[in-house]
Structure to design on (553 residues):
């Protein structure tokens, strides 16, 4: 964590000077300020909203899965190095490039810096990647809502607390918009109410718990998709900004609990670092399909670098930046915070011995179990701490779900030139139709099926974004080395991983074996992503070759 902070203070600030940030330059949020999408936000509030939007379940699920498969040492190394030299610059430069082009999306930047064809290819690529974000995070939230572990039902408590959390977000949004109260007092009241509800939710009547447990995973997935539909269409000030801000506080609190446990758990609770640094048995069993190189890099995904972040940076966040100087703390800074979330999530696995029953379950419960053990050192009831940790996990996902749906709606409207409100509704419905089909047709846990394609598409998206940023830097008289080198690395590992994932589908078709929905959906989407990424790369290489022979602007 100290290395991550030094990365922000050293490399992050160096890139800030390289990009010549200027607080006197008006930003799109201050120039347009339409009260719906373009809304200037205080850096403190925007950091919480942006952080909770990009963090979600990615830096928790990915590091724990990678740690289980390969051991904690390779996972830790990639989290730290990837955050400082790839993820941080990727997010920061995406945000700066967007606000310097009227809060343009990455797709619009592709058109301005490359070509209309590049833009359309990139937009389709992003839309498919966002569909997989929605699939993976909707399913893992639905799994959390049905959690029963250690002979206790935690799902019903999380459901009740989640609904109150969303209601408080709306109430806070209306209050801040209409009355402009003191932000600190409003935050304290909202958090106090929420923690009171969490405490009450651990004491639900047996009849209420039984009724909620009757709602299965598929039903919760339908309900969550309906939530995404509504949340992505209402004004940002009503839900996204205040709910994201509250979600940021959940992140801070859980990070504080995780840091407390990581630093003092050994002294106060006798916790030991037990999980192997290198899981040799896991490596042997995974060599046929999950090699450390490249699968490690697409599994951890958001914990070190994420293409999804660029969509958020150049989608919702760039429309809320008040001054250029805020881009460093919000762009690079939030990525460093996410790297810390990933490190602390990995620590909840590191305290378990290999073969522990918890390692056979879902990563969200390993994370919640670790936080519960940490907070129990302070004498807090363990059922309460586990409920809080699972709710915190769910709040991270809410933020990503509705941001991802809103961004996918923007992109589809852009592709189809649907500018009206009816177009927004139709684009949202189409966007959510495909995830709903995948969720309802997948027989096993959908997030496990979606995660490899999600991780690969996410990292491919990052590499293509770095490619567009390289063209942008070159057109503005820079050599682009800070984006070109990371781009090449990310492109190699992700294309390699994508080929590995497509192989079962190709074999299925070649041998005439019976088709399974999981392999077929993953294979078709993988092939589409591979072709799209190849076309974008060819287009960029041609443009860079032309720029080398032309005078710089």
């Amino acid at each position: 964590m100290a290395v991550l902070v030094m990365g922000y203070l050293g490399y992050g600030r160096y890139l800030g000077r390289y990009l010549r940030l200027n607080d006197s330059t008006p930003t799109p949020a201050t120039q347009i300020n339409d009260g719906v999408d373009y809304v200037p936000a205080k850096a403190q509030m925007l950091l919480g909203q942006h952080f909770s939007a990009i963090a979600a379940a990615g830096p928790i699920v990915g590091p724990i899965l990678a740690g289980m498969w390969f051991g904690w040492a390779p996972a830790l190394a990639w989290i730290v190095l990837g955050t400082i030299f790839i993820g941080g610059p990727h997010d920061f430069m995406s945000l700066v490039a967007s606000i310097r082009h009227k809060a343009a999306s990455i797709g619009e930047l592709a058109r301005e810096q490359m070509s209309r064809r590049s833009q359309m290819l990139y937009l389709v690529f992003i839309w498919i990647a966002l569909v997989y974000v929605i699939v993976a995070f909707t399913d893992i939230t639905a799994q959390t809502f049905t959690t029963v572990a250690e002979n206790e039902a935690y799902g019903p408590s999380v459901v009740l607390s989640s609904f109150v959390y969303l209601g408080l977000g709306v109430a806070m949004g209306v209050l801040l918009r209409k009355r402009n109260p003191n932000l600190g007092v409003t935050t304290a009241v909202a958090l106090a109410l929420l923690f009171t509800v969490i405490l009450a939710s651990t004491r639900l009547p047996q009849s209420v718990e039984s009724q909620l447990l009757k709602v299965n995973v598929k039903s919760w997935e339908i309900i969550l998709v309906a939530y995404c539909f509504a949340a992505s269409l209402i004004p940002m000030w009503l839900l996204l900004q205040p709910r994201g801000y509250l979600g940021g506080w959940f992140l801070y609190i859980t990070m504080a609990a995780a840091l407390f446990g990581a630093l003092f758990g050994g002294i106060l609770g006798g916790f030991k670092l037990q999980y192997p640094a290198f899981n040799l048995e896991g490596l042997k069993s995974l060599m046929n399909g999950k090699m450390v190189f490249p699968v490690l890099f697409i599994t951890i995904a958001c914990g070190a670098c994420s293409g999804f972040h660029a969509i958020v940076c150049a989608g919702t966040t760039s429309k809320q930046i008040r001054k250029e100087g805020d881009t460093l703390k919000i762009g690079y800074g939030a990525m460093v915070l996410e790297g810390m979330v990933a490190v602390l999530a990995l620590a909840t696995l590191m305290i378990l011995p290999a073969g522990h029953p918890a390692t056979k379950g879902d990563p969200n419960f390993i994370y919640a179990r670790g936080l519960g053990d940490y907070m129990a050192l302070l004498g807090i009831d363990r059922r309460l701490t586990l409920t809080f940790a699972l709710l915190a996990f769910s709040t991270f996902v809410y933020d990503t779900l509705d941001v991802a749906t809103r961004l996918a709606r923007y992109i589809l409207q852009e592709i189809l030139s649907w500018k009206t409100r009816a177009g927004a509704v139709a684009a949202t419905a189409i966007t959510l139709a495909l995830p709903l089909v995948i969720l309802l047709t997948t027989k096993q846990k959908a997030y496990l099926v979606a995660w490899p394609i999600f991780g690969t598409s996410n990292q491919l998206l990052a590499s293509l974004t770095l490619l567009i940023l390289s063209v942008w830097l070159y057109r503005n008289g820079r050599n682009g080395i800070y984006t070109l080198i990371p781009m090449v690395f990310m492109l190699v590992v992700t294309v390699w991983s994508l080929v590995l994932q497509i192989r079962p589908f190709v074999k299925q078709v070649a041998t005439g074996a019976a088709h399974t929905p999981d392999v077929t959906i993953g294979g078709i989407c993988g092939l589409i992503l591979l072709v799209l990424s190849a076309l974008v790369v060819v287009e960029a290489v041609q443009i860079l070759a032309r720029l080398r022979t032309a005078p710089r602007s």
The CA atoms of residues 35 and 65 lie 41 Å apart. The mean pLDDT is 85. The domain at 2-548 is CATH 1.20.1740.10 (Amino acid/polyamine transporter I).
